[in-house]
Amino acid sequence: MKRHVLHPIWVAIGVVGLILFARLLLVPDDFGVHGDSFTYNYHRLGNIEEWKNFPVKYQGTDTCLECHKDNAKAHRRSPHKRVQCENCHGPAGNHPDDVEYLPLNKERAMCLRCHADLGYPESTARSNLPAIVDRHHKRRRECVSCHNPHDPREDVE
Amino acid sequence: MSCSRRDFLKDSVGAAFVSSLPLSAFVVLTTEEAAAAIAESTVRWAYLVDTTRCTGCGMCVKACKNENEIPYDAPVTRTWVERYVVTNDGQTHVDSPDGGRDGFTSDKIRDQEIDPDTIDKAFFVPKLCNQCDNPACVQVCPVGATYQTDDGVVLVDREWCIGCGYCIMACPYGVRFFHPDHKVADKCNFCYHRITKGMMPACVDSCAFGARRLANLRDPDDPVTKIIKTERVAVLKDEYGTKPHVFYIGLDNNVR
Q1: Is the domain defined by B136-186 classed in CATH 3.30.70.20?
Q2: Contact criterion met (CB below 8 Å) for B92 and B243
């Protein structure tokens, strides 16, 4: 065959070879079809483990109960028992190992999330909760200066 | 070289038979491998939202953002709560300020005062990834960076995603967004790191009203699975054929 035909063929073969070689180096071994569908299960297998190892921040009420027994007792028999500790106290993370004190949000806005009267009909879940109209009830005072958040039936001494 | 008609026909049939065999016919599997190939996962995660219980406190959105390291003040979120207020003139007012992250503490909707006497109904609807059986977002990914696990959750590989945004456009529910820090597509994964450890997703734990619950559809004794199987539930945008796995109790026709 003539050289002007052969040379481009060698170049083309070389380029294809290079691409295949690069692919071999760059694509991880665990990349492929892991499941029954090429469309939905074509991925890097190791990524599943990476997501499983994502750090947990909200540890759950049971973890809080291990130490904070006094607060938990009052909280447990109050109408607020279904509100988990970390909703108001923030995510525990590795507390108390790294963060000694969790910042506590005492803003009115925190309580108003549930207890703002929006004037909605009975059929709205919000309407079944005790509620205030923000602009009419003790404006600019923190709710927790009068109401005990752990057991709102009790007043603060 | 000579070849009789008989030999020629014999060889042709043989060759046709052998060439029709796929390569995989020659793979020898051990008993365990064969069992693993047929066995279905014992887990298929699904989700149940009871809109009649949602009070719009937004604790779920706050918990989700903290748990999953989604920038708190960026206008992106993996889950959000929508407020619907239907007035007697037939209008539906919808809003979701900051995705409902700080709850709904004002009766104004998009700076508009609504007379409480004109309100026919009002409700809150939490939304999140539907972990579809036929996820459109996975189909369109050009690099295999998003996929479905064998327990039904759709994950995004942050190492592999090139940030092209096709999946964000493809999702009919609009649950995907571009992560401002990692520069990749991001979405709810039912807190995969929690549910695989036996915990509940952060949004489920933070919901004080039981409006958000997780189910394993392959466990017939799961109480939430029983509700999904035996009670009247609905899904969003069924007509898209994506087979979503977030089920809703009390879903109103105004919700899209």
Answers
A1: yes
A2: no
Say yes or no for a CB contact (<8 Å) between A112 and B66: no
Q: Tens of pLDDT along A47-76?
A: 999 999 999 999 999 999 999 988 888 898
Class of domain B45-129+188-249: alpha beta
Assess B105–A contact: CB distance below 8 Å, yes or no.
Answer: yes
B33 close to A (CB below 8 A): no
Mark whether A67 and A123 lie in a shared domain: yes
Q: Which of B52, B55, B194 sits opposite A56 (nearest CB)?
A: B194
For the entire predicted model, the pTM comes to 0.86
Structure ipTM: 0.89
